[in-house]
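Re: the 286-residue chain
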Amino acid sequence: MIKTAATIGIESHLAPYPSVSLGSFEVTPLEIAYAYSAFANLGVKAETDLDPGGLHARRKVAESREVKMKRVADAGVCYVMNDILKGVFEFGTASKASSLGFDRPFAGKTGTTSSYRDACSSAIRRASCRWCGSASTTDNSVRLAGGDACVPIWTANMNRVGGLIPDVDWKRPEDVVDRQIDPASGMLATPYCPQTKDEIFVTGTERPRSAPSTPAAASQARSGATNTEPAQAQTEGVISNPSGPVPTPQQQQKRKEERGLRKLLKAIFGGSDQGASSRSMISRAM
């Protein structure tokens, strides 16, 4: 992960700790925007050699240099990543942008540091980053998350320059395929999955078809599955499987035994008015 971050433009020091995937080390807004540009270009990074000495005091360019384009990531991987990050604008922490007048398909990510000292909002397609905070560790925090502090600023800017950005989606690489998955496990769906969801994958990276493949496994997966994602995120794009849930062989056998025992008790005690007592005895017997 650290090697990939360095390849796409992160120059700040990142230590090899598991928490690095959660953003436990600081980077600059310029690094974030530069790294996100690789995703915006489907894996191609523009390498520049910017020398501050090449600018006059009045910020006029004194020297121009050739920009080199270098592939640093697979196009299919970047396409899938962009598709995942579209959810941030559709129903995630940057969804406020739509209520502020920005309704174009975009991908991005918001961020918030500990104690709300810093907040940021970064976007892919027109690579950009908005940061709110203080360079000093002693100043007060912004007291807002990235979605609240930076998304409104980012949206106001994008609404002004929106006409400069082509309203087209990324061209889909040939090695990206559509698959139906079981949202409870993330694995490829089978006819026994009670719900399915459409997802895209780079060919060969799909998870094994080990979602419930029998009625018994489907019942076990439903009873043991847990999900802590927000309810809206859980149901986004999820559709019910027309085949519906199927009783397991154990459930079918138990129901058969209950019916047989109920008939026996009815024959002993007679009449339907003993139904409550019969059900109580069945419960104790089972």
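The two ends are 54 Å apart (CA to CA).
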